[in-house]
Amino acid sequence: MGVPKTGFTTEYRNLLFLILAALLLAVLGCHEALSAETALERIRRTGEVRLGYAPEPPFSFRLPDGRLSGSGPEVARRVFAMMGVHEIHGVESEFGNLIRDLRAGRFDVIAIGMSVLPERCREVAFSEPFYKSGVGFAVRPGNPVNLHGFQDVAANPSVRLGIVAGGVELDYARASGVAEGQLIIFPDAAAAASGVRSGRVDALAAMAVTVQDMVRRNPQQLERAAPFRNPVIRGRNFPDHGGFGFRPEDKDLRDAFNHHLLELLQAPDYLDLVEPFGFTRAELPDRTTAELCAP
């Protein structure tokens, strides 16, 4: 009688190969299913959303206890609660990097209240606007250089104008004839306000509500230039309108957000939500994203 052979038979090896291949395909299939999950599906499944912001009161800022607040985060918090999403995670960025970081997936929505502009609409899927605001200058008390608009800066080459990186005010200044050498770029609103107080710049150009908030926080060191002339730029309509920004591939998330945002804008307590941040009935939006994105 012969000795039984040891080891795997060819049939056994083939069966084992088929089993392993089936397991591998199953794992890959699960991975593909998970990777195909949309941002909206993930947010609804987890009940969590990441809000991208830059420190720019009154639009967005951290309270002493660490809570993310400001007009943008508070409106977003209310809208996401209406969607059944209650866990908010703030992810800080510089204003000039918000669009880049959104598209890179660092967070799900820009929640600072970014001006809806045609050039930005090519990179971001904006919600409907939730506020409007003109532009303003923060200056030292008495407005020593007598600045009341971008044209005044352009007319005096010795004037230095501060602007937050990525702010639309940079375009307004250039279109108004302000020379590049007159422009000082700051990473955030706090640094820009410090630049005005110290005399590094003669004025800071920012959204009027931002300027108003800066003056409220620095009543002895800053004031709002008044009167103020909005820039005259062909093809632009003032005041600017701000909305929430989403990745272009997340339009389903944007649309779900929009549905509840429009409900909130019509709610009787909407002004109660935004008035603590300096927004009044005069700052309620009166244009649509489609109109603002039109070239």
Structure commentary:
By secondary structure, the chain is α/β, with parallel strands linked by helices. It has helices spanning about 10-35, 40-45, 70-80, 100-105, 120, 150-155, 170-175, 190-200, 210-215, 250-265, 270-275, 290-295; strands spanning about 50-55, 60, 70, 85-90, 110-115, 125, 130-135, 135-140, 160-165, 185, 205, 225, 240-245. The strands form 3 sheets. Strands 1, 4, 5, 6, 7 and 13 form a 6-stranded mixed beta sheet that branches. Strands 10-9-11-8-12 form a 5-stranded mixed beta sheet, sandwiched between helices. Strand 9 (about 160-165), helix 7 (about 170-175) and strand 10 form a beta-alpha-beta unit. Helix 3 packs across helix 10.
> pLDDT under 50 segments (min length 5)?
30-34
The best one-word shape is elongated
Reported for the largest beta sheet, the result is: 6 strands, mixed
Question: Which structural class matches the secondary elements?
Answer: alpha/beta
Oligomer: single chain
How far is it from the N-terminal to the C-terminal residue, by CA? 91 Å
Number of helices: 12
Task: Please give the structural blueprint.
Layout: H1 10-35, H2 39-46, E1 48-53, E2 61-62, E3 68-69, H3 71-82, E4 87-92, H4 98-103, E5 109-115, H5 118-121, E6 125-126, E7 131-133, E8 135-139, H6 150-154, E9 161-164, H7 169-175, E10 183-186, H8 189-198, E11 203-207, H9 208-217, E12 223-224, E13 240-246, H10 251-265, H11 270-274, H12 289-293
Helix pairs in contact: 3-10
